[in-house]
Amino acid sequence: MRTILFTIAPIIFFSSVSCKQDSGSELLWQKNEKSVQFQYDPFYTGEPKLLSDLIHENGQPCLISGEDPGFKIQICIQEEGISEFAKILFAWKEGILVSEFSSVLSDDSEYKLGTYPFSGIKKKLEGSKFALVGDRKFKSLSSSAVTWDREQFNLKNHFRTFSIFFLSNGKFVLVLSPMEEGEVYLGLTFEAPGLEKEIQDSIISKNQVGLETCDSSLPTITEIFGETNTSIGRWIEIYNPNTMPICEEGLELILLGSKVSIPKTTGFLSPYEARVYAEDSASFERISLMGIKWGDLKKVGKIDITRGDRAFEFSLPGTGYLFGETYYSWKGNSFSNCESNLKFCMDPGRNQIAGSKNEFSCDPGDFELEELNPNGLLHKSILREDWKYLDLIYRGQKICDPSSLKINWGKNLFPIRISKKISEGEILSIGNLPFLLGSPSYSLSIFKSVTTNDIVSLSDSNGKEKLLWDGIFRTSKGIPTRLVLQKTNGETVSVCFENGRSFLHSYVNAKLSSDFTQSALDFENPRTSVGRKFCSKKDVTAANIKFSEISWMGSYHGSDPISKDRFLEFTSGSENSPDSAYLEIVQGNGTATSILLPLEKEGLSLLSSGKSICFPKTEFWKDTAFSLPSSGSNTLKVYDPYTGELWDEVTYSSSGPGINDTRNKIRKSAYSKLESGARVWSASQYIGKPYRDPDCSLTDANPGTLE
Fold first, then answer.
1. Could you tell me which residues belong to the region Disordered (predicted)?
2. What pairing do the DSSP bridges indicate for beta strands 220-225 and 699-700?
């Protein structure tokens, strides 16, 4: 019967787990016969328990440390020393230096226990003849000592564990390294005749069995980290998923075509062993891997582990591993899960069977895209093009943790990280949105070079993926050639989603919305609603959108023709104006171009390719590829994008309506007005507004102004 007396906090990248002792595990001791007992069983297939605790074992107090039961040491003491022993063990956990204490082991031999700084523990180890080190910091402590480390023994997990030193005076020193990133060591000095030989004989004999029974199957690559300039260093984790050991001989890593051999250690990987190979600068337990181009871990491609003509393939994320101020490792299908207060989100060297699926993990299938913004937001009259974002809405019925999910938009891949679990109907905002920092449902992602046509998907750590947006904007009239989402003054329009259909974001009345916390931003971006559920399509009836002005030839700036000044103007004959229109430009040869564009909430709507030369103070909805044919007979049609209803149709040619006099450098747009109740088209007469560049006096048009 075993009772744990004191629980030690987990070391970095590790949390304690419980296990049952495998019935096949071999012990080097007979119970109650020795005070100090060592066990090595690299073939144990159960779930190991990593610990350094004071326990009761068969009625006596014992310190047990290591990876129970596969690699551990147990030192039993007499009851009269247990109170002081426990205090010093607690001091070590807390990183406190205390004076050395002496008492006796269960076999009546003396021991000394204390906590020490590194310099103190180093002094105690002077004159060591043999060392079994579980912390690489001790590997080169004594040049004269025979030192065994992870090249001589196997562990399921690749973490620091106990180190034991045999001194020239016949004593042993057990050293437990500092908890987490502390600086205080625990040192236990004792006598145990024959222990050195028992340790060596056990490891040698078990390793020989491993070499004789290992098979030539392939381990898997389970986790990588490739960010530069970190205290962690870059590394690759491989894992044996089998119940049998895997031979090291012949294993190679191939990274983007560059091949390196797996360094030789014991000659085999134990069942369910996780191993970390890293660059020399890595700060944690690892096996050095030379010759690899670590920078390639940030490139698009794959890394393989091979043997002969067989290979296990692992796709690279094709991006960096730093998101905001947090570093994430990559696990093949997803970035590592992360708690909100951690700087490093990763668990290199953790035995894979020790990790259980989080019962609160979110299912990517329970999310829908609610809003997409590929252009950024207007802030203090400047378009912040890096403020692009996605809003997802959660439709699942259970409260869940989205930290195992990643978002993919075009070539951008980011882990989801928020500081809370999410409930049905809540919005999850993803983007570079500094004004949302601190919001519990906001995850930082800096989207670059994305467009509305880029695919958006969400996936989890198990590889399950949901396509949220295929990049195709569908309307009742069909798929438009182009989509207009930006104004020449920087104002942008988001794409909304509801019930499987997409539509342009309508205007938000910030004055009437009580849940707006970023009022200045909201007033500058009235057709976005980041972080809030707003996208709901309302049908517009009695709409009457008409063409009111057509500049199919552009302007003259002095004698220079300005074709980019072509524009279209729309007007609504109803107070209930729709939020968008579907425009068709049909040339005489039948070639058609379609454009989905936003409409103003009130007044006239203007479409052009950008800023006007002759009317520089007038704002247009901007389609950089916009043009109107200036020869032949051409037809313009405007439709309701949701019902397909034709709102208006106009045909023009080089003879009008409108004037393009290239000899006299005169251009006049075509203008629509009512005369005696009938709609007529005529050439424009400039009425003094809007502002027109003085060098454009031979250009007559009135964009945004009724004649």
1. 688-707
2. unpaired
Summarised one tens digit per residue, pLDDT across range 374-399 is 999 999 999 999 999 999 999 999 99
Integer Cα distance of 34 and 210 in angstroms: 28
Token readout for 274 is: 């996780």
Q: What is the C-alpha separation between 71 and 27, in angstroms, rounded?
A: 10
> Nearest 5°: phi and psi at 36?
-115, 125
What span, in angstroms and rounded, lies between the C-alpha atoms of 580 and 596?
7
The residues that bridge with 103 in the sheet, in sequence order, are: 111
Assess contact for 238 and 263: CB atoms under 8 A.
Answer: no
The rounded distance, in Å, linking the Cα atoms of 602 and 613 is: 25
Sheet bearing 646-652, strands edge to edge: 482-483, 592-598, 580-586, 634-639, 646-652
Q: How far is the C-alpha of 172 from the C-alpha of 196, rounded, in Å?
A: 9
Q: How do strand 71-76 and strand 36-40 relate by DSSP bridges?
A: antiparallel
Q: What is the DSSP string of 477-506?
A: TB--SEE--BBTTS-B-PEEEETTEEEE--
Q: Which residues pair with 335 in a beta bridge?
A: 330
Nearest to residue 611, comparing CAs of 621, 603, 600? 621
- Domains of the chain and CATH, by start: 36-211 (no CATH), 220-345 (no CATH), 364-524 (2.60.40), 546-700 (2.60.40.3110)
Spatial distance between the Cα atoms of 325 and 342, rounded to a whole number of angstroms? 10
Asked if 190 and 172 count as a contact pair (C-beta separation under 8 A), the reply is: yes
3-state DSSP call for residue 436?
helix
| pTM, to two decimals | 0.75
- Quote the CA–CA distance of 234 and 216 in Å, as a whole number: 27
DSSP codes joined into one string, 350-402: --GGGPPPPTTBPPGGGEEEEEEESS-EEETTEEETT--EEEEEE--SS-BBG
pLDDT digits (tens, 9 = 90+) for 217-241: 999 999 999 999 888 999 999 999 9
Cα 310 from Cα 313, distance rounded (Å): 10
pLDDT digits (tens, 9 = 90+) for 73-127: 999 999 998 999 999 999 999 999 999 999 999 999 999 999 999 999 999 999 8
Report the pLDDT value the prediction gives residue 10, as an integer from 0 to 100: 34
Collapse the DSSP code of 435 into the 3-class scheme (helix H, G, I; strand E, B; otherwise coil) and give the result.
helix
Amino acid found at 597? L
Alpha carbon of 245 to those of 42, 242, 277, 311, 314: distances in Å? 9, 7, 18, 18, 21
Copy the structure tokens of residue 458.
Answer: 């969400």
